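Dear colleagues,

As part of the handover before I leave the project, I'm documenting each prediction I ran so the next person doesn't have to rerun anything. This entry is a single chain, and its sequence is reproduced below.
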Amino acid sequence: MTDGTAWIGAHKHTPVSGAVQGMLGGISLTVASGIEPDEFLLALGADVDELAARIPYRDLEVPVGGSGRPSPAVSPVMYGTCGDWVYVLEDWGAASWSTGWRKVESMRPRPGEEIVCVTVNRFSPPPQILHVPGDERARRAEFGQDTGEASALDSALHAAGAVFPAIGDVGEAAVVEYYEEHGPRLPEAVFTAVGSYCGLSIDEATVRAGGLPGVLLPMP
């Protein structure tokens, strides 16, 4: 088991067995600073009483839908803090913040709030990185790209090997060959860069066991 955040990307395609009470494969990550942790969870739609209860993720009672499966109206998420950041982990296929911030007023970033979101976009590829550096404007990059802002996050992406060659620079054939060779390590490189930029460390064993607090968020 490891900490840091590289393990999140390394397990992007790992099937989750019944022995995993928390999360492991296909995790999306949203981190925020400049806002109180509970305030950020409430902005995402968390219930105030459930949030105050600090229920371990593995003990959440997820409503059952008509099919006998977990209700598609809610998403169980895990959260925690590291340094100045609050982080939210989700494995339903995307990140709630990435899908909701444009249409849900409470999710819109305010001046001074920094948000970094890595969303796997399972149902609407490609996976993306979004970055709001405190000015209320979201920069966006697909995996393999930087945001084009020459920011410290972009520098971290380059340092981690998470920025791949572009067709305009080396041609289509070279890009295809590069992705075929290096593509499998790209998710790990992206999460390595985000973890480095944020100074973020999330314990894999705790997440796998569902030991972090959890809440149910309404699907955006």
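The longest helix spans residues 186-198. Residues 5 and 129 are 14 Å apart (CA to CA).

All the best with the project,
I.
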